[in-house]
Amino acid sequence: MQLRVPAPPEPPAAGGGRAERRRSTRSAGREKGAAASAVAGAAGRVLGPLAPYARRIAPYARRLKPVYPRPGRTGWRRWMPSWRQWIGAVLTSCGLLGAFLVTAYAMTDIPSNLNSYATQQDNVYFWSDGTPMARTGWVQRQAMPLKDIPEDVRWAVLAAENESFYSDPGISVKGITRALFRTVGEGDTEGGSTITQQYVKNVYLTQNQTISRKFTEAMISLKLDNKMSKDEILEGYLNTSWFGRGTYGIQRAAQAYYGKDVGKLNASEAAMLASLLKGAGLYDPTLSKANHARAVERWSWILDRMVKIGKLSPQERTEYTKFPDPLKSNPLYDTGEQSDYLVELASQYAKKAGHLTDKQFDLGGYQIYTTFDRKREQALTTAVTKARKDARQGDPAVAKNGHYGAASVAADGRILAVYGGPDHRRQGYNESNATTVPAGTAFLPFVYAAGLEHGVHKTRGGPATPVTPDSVYDGDDAVPVTTPEGPYWDRSGKKVAAHNDGGKSYGKITLREALAKSVNTPFMQLGMDAGLDEVRQTAEASGLLPSSIGPQVPALSLGNSTPSAIRMASGYATFAAEGTHTEPYSVRRITRNGSPVALATPRPKRAVGATVAEQVTDALTDSFRTAHPEAGAGRSGISGKAGTADKDTASWYVGTADSVSTAIVVYRIDLARSLEPLPLKGLAGTTADSVPYALWSAATGIG
Q1: What is the C-alpha to C-alpha distance for residues 393 and 387, in angstroms, rounded to an integer?
Q2: pLDDT of residue 29
Q3: Residue 172: which residues within 8 A CB-CB, separation 6 or more?
Q4: How far is CA 657 from the centre of its chain?
Q5: pTM for this model (two decimals)
Q6: How far is 169 from 570, CA to CA, in rounded Å?
Q7: Nearest to residue 561, comparing CAs of 649, 436, 694, 477?
Q8: Which H or E run includes 258?
């Protein structure tokens, strides 16, 4: 009998055998089922309470479900929705639209970055009498607080643009719908925006007329209306709107069209300006006859609207029957020629004294009230302009490189007038503020003051010996300069000697007489006796900049320093102010949009004693009377001195009249090559016919 041996079992395949796979499948199924049951249970718990409502709605939903063709209808009616379906569609659309608007409102943020044109303003400069002098900036705009804008002006704008401004939510649904219809249907746009929407467009958005921009404008307007007060929005709108003639804002518009501030406008003028908001190109009455007719019609309509809304009485309306024609051109002052030099000085000082950065200042909105006197500036400019013309006619080659620096500074430091050059746009180099030519013998009063103030030292380290105006010095030409140890030797090993103009000798002479006659040799020695460091300190304390003081050698006393005309005038003003010096300044007050800006105004400081200042002034008075005995007859308080520089590179006249010191310097420099001064070659005239003195006398009214 044969035994049957069973075959060994096959090894299980990768992933398990069939039974294993069945067990895995059942296990996974149970897991999925459990998960599905859990989800279903959770959904049931959430939706369970809603089931009764769902059962109630179900019949209506089934009715709304379209069945086409509709039974019981014939013809085209078989394919039209029922009234229930129409209502459902409308309600659904309204719900979706409402949800969309709520979401859009929540997601819309008011931009933090304003349109640059909405914040940028111009800076306005005023003469000392308060009249406009110049303006700078890319945009003609000056913001005004709402409190400074009259009620009639505000309501003229509101009557023209948005009479319901104080009650609306910031948008006009009717206006938006009309604008969207025209944009989509005809490819054009139409107004209808509220003032809030127009303000948003001005400061946050572009002027592009698109549906997306219009929608964003509406959303921001709604939010802004909830965030800002109506008065704040109105103020912003009035200060950012375009009025034509290059102006933004109601203040600039009032000045451009009527030459007055907004606070001085009446209701009639305000209505004319309000008409420009509809389009200055169409309503500026000076541009064409058609514009004038449109402007008159809209002006009348605006005044009537003001009566209708109760902001103008019928009696007041009868007063405005004649159209207020504006000025034919914008009278706002712009910079150019001489005024640019004034603006340059004032802006530099304003930023420094007002602690303003360049970025802050360039944003504009500042009103800079300068110290410049219009009449003095005109007299100085006229005189120098004539001198330039005469020089060109006499010797064009020499006059080509001629320069005429001039400045008038009051005893209290105010810069009243300067002459900076023929035209700032052609020559930015400011001739009144340049430190390029030596002061020459116009520097002698500072040496005289140092000697009178500090005395002299005859021995090294010994006590100071007092000096008076009657102290006698050697006035001969070529007198060697001495020190307590003996003659002064220069670096080349030569004895240093002083020289007078023309090599003239005067013998023994008092210091007062030496200053009156401009004798050089006594003052070179006086500077050595008093100490060159004392001379330098006295000159700096009187107003000369340390950077302009020359090398501390004997020639310092004869004017190797290179002060500007402004600083020389300031130094002489110190003597007129009884020895107190006030740093020269060109701005007396700054405001920004009507609010004052803190300004560091310079304070007077003692430079020399009052007695010394009086003694210097007396000598300068003698100098003026000696050189010009017939000038200034019957007038007191006039003093002055001429100054010549070594190698004939500069000619000065500096003097004081009516407590105002004026410095004039004539020199030659070829700006295309260097700032090295050139010989005058007769440009400054002669001693008997001095150009600097002629300009000084014309500027001060002496001549």
Answers
A1: 10
A2: 53
A3: 162, 192, 193, 194, 197
A4: 34
A5: 0.72
A6: 61
A7: 436
A8: helix 250-258
